[in-house]
Each structure stands twice: as structure tokens, then as C-alpha cells.
């Protein structure tokens, strides 16, 4: 199985970054969002990931 880090198309709050990270690691997206809240450079990291991660293919 070839897993790639992508933005989530189903678990989106803003752009799907946290949902994509949660799907990749198999954890809750709520936990990833909490980590982004408490990280010191959260906005910079989120903006970089939002612009660099590809979108996941649409599912039916």
C-alpha cells in the first residue's frame, strides 16, 4: 500500500491539512488540530502545508 500525504477531501475544516495528516497517520483529526493550536509556529506551518500538499482525488 502506497500512502501519500495529501489534503483530505472528506475531513475539512479550512483546507483539509489536519484531516490529511490524521488520515496518513491513522489518528483522530481532533488530536492533530489540538497539536496545531498549541504549536508555537502553527500558522506558518499550516500555511506552508496548505500550499504544498496536493489535493486528494475526489471519491464517489
Quantity of strands, as a count: 0
Number of domains: 1
- Helix percentage range: 40-55%
Query: What is the CA-based Rg, rounded?
Result: 11 Å
Beta percentage is under 5%
So what's the oligomer here?
A: single chain
Characterize the main sheet.
none
The chain-level structural class is mainly alpha
The overall average pLDDT, rounded, is 88
The shape, in one word, is globular
- Give the N-to-C terminal Cα separation: 20 Å
Q: Give me the number of helical elements.
A: 3
User: Which ranges are low-confidence, i.e. pLDDT below 50, for 5 or more consecutive residues?
Assistant: none
What does this structure look like?
The structure is a single chain. By secondary structure, the chain is mostly helical. The protein has one domain (1-54). Helix content is 50%, strand content 0%. It contains three helices and no strands. The protein has helices at residues 17-25, 29-38, 42-52. Helix 1 packs across helix 2. The longest helix has 11 residues, at 42-52. The protein is globular. It starts with 16 loop residues before the first helix and ends in an 8-residue tail after the last helix. The model has no long low-confidence stretch (mean pLDDT 88).
Amino acid at each position: 500500500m502506497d500512502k501519500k500525504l495529501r489534503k483530505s477531501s472528506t475531513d475539512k475544516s479550512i483546507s483539509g491539512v489536519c484531516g490529511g495528516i490524521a488520515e496518513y497517520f491513522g489518528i483522530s483529526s481532533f488530536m492533530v488540530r489540538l497539536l496545531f493550536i498549541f504549536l508555537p509556529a502553527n500558522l506558518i506551518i499550516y500555511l506552508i502545508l496548505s500550499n504544498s500538499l496536493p489535493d486528494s482525488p475526489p471519491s464517489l
